[in-house]
Sequence to fold (654 residues):
Amino acid sequence: MDADLNRMKELAEKLKEASKAYYSEDREIMSNYEYDALYDELAALEKKTGMVLTGSPTMSVGYEAVDELPKEAHGSPMLSLDKTKDRDELAQWLNGREGLLSWKLDGLTIVLTYRDGELQKAVTRGNGEVGEVITNNAKVFKNIPLRIRYQDELILRGEAVITYSDFEEINSHIGDDGLKYKNPRNLCSGSVRQLNNRITAERNVRFYAFSLVKADGVDFENSREKQFEFLRQQGFDVVEYVKVTPQSIADAIARYEEKIRTYDIPSDGLVLIYDDIEYGRMLGRTAKFPRDSIAFKWADELSETTLLQIEWSPSRTGLINPVAVFEPVELEGTTVSRASVHNISILRGLKLGIGDRITVYKANMIIPQIAENLTKSDNVEIPQICPVCGGRTQISAVNDVQSLYCVNPDCDAKKIKSFTLFVSRDALNIDGLSEATLEKFIAKGFIHEYRDIFHLDSHYDEIVSMEGFGEKSYKRLIESIDAARSVTLPKLIYSLGIANIGLANAKVICRHYDYDLDRMRNADVEELSEIDGIGEIIGKAFADYFNVPQNNERLDNLLGEVNIVKEESSGEQTLEGKVFVVTGSLVHFSSRNELKELIESRGGKVTGSVTSKTVCLINNDITSSSSKNKKAKELGIPIVTEESFMKEYLEMDI
Fold:
């Protein structure tokens, strides 16, 4: 009994730590597979001993809400669902009745309250008893109706999610791989709980209703399906579902299983609920689970394979991530041969060794993970030197999670941000060199300084054989590099990553010195500071950069690879010395950046904030109460529409 009790305490602590990391801190310290295994072991021990420890994860229903947002108690507890991986058990659970089988979406559960047909309140699930009030954020979800026809109090629950395609799109605009979001659920959790709902609005959060809590006076004919139909009629997107019987449920599960391979909305299983509302209510609930519904989790497809090596992948933060490379196996219809091990703590917990027999799976049928190490030889050596720079490494613990870091401040891998800027659209505009690709090339020693990018063709054999590359990708990359050899001087200056020097500032300095690079490089702080719109801080940063011999040497090497072309002008410098601010969406330009470039080509300047020097604020929503509009009105700065600006300042016919 003592051994069982000690094991229960150990399991409870591990599970609580993992739950806190996942739900409250948006980080992952163990795989879903490992969490489920530990949870099931704890539940079995509790059943065996007849004991349940205080605060046991089998009795709690979530983690405490964070303090950044107001808290509010739910009118009725939001319970977890009992779960099974047994398909036959679902058919037996129906007990001869009809049920609704739907996706179990993997996002953040939200409770919405409407009164008088308007959204009054949105609260997160929190710990099931108390959640966080996120009403302002919910109002900018992509598909939540702000007004509905039903006028009495309506309360419903649903899942806030971010689709895989939106997740990938958002990550594609983050140059630093170390700052990319790990998965859609983490991104959604952070987006929903923002203090500034403008950030939420940019994340394309969607809401799918899965339960009606209250709608008095409506006859639903004792049917959950009728409730779903009612919610649809009010303008809500409802979680996809199908009506099933004990005889049809197996085929329905098979169809979901096929669909999840390409389903754009994150899902970690299915939910089965009785269609008969009164029957479900009659069953009541346990301390943790309602008895009218049950969750089905996919049985992970496991494959056994052999660990071939551990690759150590450095990043710009100095973090060196272990990546398991194993003999290729088929999982969920695709071939996989690699899986992230995440950190030293997980690597040591798995006791990995080269040649070990391991089982691998795809978490939620998508992300390759190691499930178990069958042989546990524990012979992987932690590198003492960085694979990129040869500098010393050290193991550091953050929140009790051990990770490996390179401590050399001059490590090439830490310069990844500067290379990412160098190839970005407003700089050299080289397609095919994402931050992830740059990290791989730097790790292999292909790139040490900017000019090396123009000689990647000397590594042809290695590049075309790399994972994710091939002949076509290589050819496109080289074509993009060759096209980048012709560059304007402002873009070249911006590409160097000089502190405080954006493309607009680079253009101002270049125009002031008549595009004479030697004069610019030799300018002193006082001279630069006198340029209108530059000032002392920017001038000092520019001068300091060119006072470093190594920076001039790297630029000279780069100049041997590029051809500086004259910046095209779209007309006379009619906006010379004028400052504008652009905000909101545009109609005649594909982006604010396109309008900004046109203004700058006419000699004007575009800034991010309204000041007394601003000539006008360009905003198609003149009546909005945005901070820029308020500031413009306070200072007496004209607010003009896009078309008015084009007619009055650009003299363009609309």
Remarks:
- Residues 2-23 form the longest helix (22 residues).
- Residues 61-67 have pLDDT under 50 and may be disordered.
- The chain has 24 helices and 24 strands.
- The domain at 487-565 is CATH 1.10.150.20 (DNA polymerase; domain 1).
